[in-house]
Design a protein that fits this description.
alpha+beta; Thiol Ester Dehydrase, Chain A; 5 helices; seven-stranded mixed β-sheet; elongated
């Protein structure tokens, strides 16, 4: 279907297999890595000790793989902005390359399946996600499933302006 503009909140009926969005860029900083270590409790020197990491397989400190997954999830929240009710599953996820400090990433988020449920009040949506650098270099990729509300739910809750015109 091609890439669409990111606009107001979308209901599941506005999502079709093949629709794809691209997020803005997000730079992974050393501060992000330190904060993630604090939140996760993962203080592996591969991420935090420059001397240790320099002697390791990557020659420098790299971000936690799960930090990349968390950033991908955050970028997906607005690419596109949908009426997500729940994150259901990580169906598959690959950590293709380590993410070095200072790397800018963006998310390519494509609809794979839309499965209406609960008499059309919501749908299970399967997404193909790729976390890439500015030149398309692949760092992580996988498939996730979310629960997305219907357009009628958005109207009932007062959301408006669900323009999903293609750009």
């Amino acid at each position: 279907m091609g890439r669409k503009r990111m606009v107001a909140t979308l209901g599941y009926e506005e999502l079709e297999p093949g629709d794809e969005w691209e997020s803005p860029g997000r730079t992974i900083t050393e501060a992000d890595v330190v904060q993630f270590a604090g939140v996760s409790g993962d203080f592996n020197p591969l991420h935090l000790d420059h001397d240790f990491a320099r002697a390791g397989a990557f020659g420098r400190p790299v971000a936690h793989g799960l930090l990349g997954l968390a950033v991908a999830s955050g970028l997906a929240a607005h690419a596109p902005k949908v009426a997500t009710q729940a994150f259901l599953a990580i169906e598959s996820w690959r950590f293709v390359k380590p993410i070095p400090f200072g790397q800018t990433v963006r998310l390519l988020n494509r609809v794979q399946e839309v499965q209406p449920q609960a008499r059309g009040r919501r749908a299970r949506v399967v997404w193909s996600r790729r976390l890439v650098g500015p030149d398309g270099e692949l760092f992580q990729e996988g498939m996730v499933a979310t629960l997305v509300a219907s357009c009628a739910s958005l109207t009932a809750s007062g959301s408006e302006g669900r323009d999903s015109d293609k750009s």
